[in-house]
Amino acid sequence: MQSSRPPFDPPELREILGVAVASVTAEQASRLFLRLIAERRFTKVSFLNAHNANVAANDPAFERVLSDFLILPDGVGVDVAARVLYGEPFPANLNGTDFIPGFLRAAAIPLKVGLLGATRKNADQAAARLLEIAPQHRIEVIHDGFFTESQEPEILDRLVKFRPDILLVAMGVPRQEFWIAGNLDREHCTLPVAVGALFDFLSGAVPRAPGVMRRLRMEWLFRMIIEPGRLWRRYIVGNPLFLLRVFRQKLLPGDGG
């Protein structure tokens, strides 16, 4: 697949554990999205949080894949990392669960939006919710995330025919990024965005944390409480490991960690 790096002036980048993350406000990110769409500049998009950074630190192939994505900052972990490494946090927490629906709501120009991933039920319900939030757009479910390799040509053909401005890919880390990098090009969409559990949240299948916990940047704790069997290792083991790697980067610049 061809490189998706924007050819015009890029945003300021901050390296977190070998991954270059855009240091932008939500307004700047939204303007960048709209410009890329208007100019039909194929750009792969993902988000970096503590978990993704740990995965990239353990998997050189994943780190290489992310180097060709526009990466946005997600969560308190990367803010702590930015404070340690650069003296200040990122300008905004651009987690996909909030940023993507907010961007679509605010975008006045009608866009074509494709959904790919999760279960079919959750994807359909997520599409319905997005239509409530942003009725100006054309939103279609391309396929759920449970497909075989033999089904991929049909999915890709449907993408070529629909060619969404934005394709939301919800397959989990790192499968979604590898799939985007290995299968998509400008003929399929303009902005393929790896969105993790977004469809599960939009559908209501997975509840969001109460507003006060989100304001306190503690949504990770709420998620661990409601899904301890799946998430305890990610947070209890992963968060301290992430911070250790950040301090190692601070003390040993240039070390991959």
Automatic annotation (TrEMBL):
Annotated GO MF terms: hexosyltransferase activity
Leader sequence segment: none
Keywords: Glycosyltransferase, Transferase
Highest taxon, organism lineage: Bacteria
InterPro entries assigned to the protein according to its UniProt record, in alphabetical order: WecG_TagA_CpsF
Protein name: Polymer biosynthesis protein, WecB/TagA/CpsF family
Species of the source: Neomesorhizobium albiziae
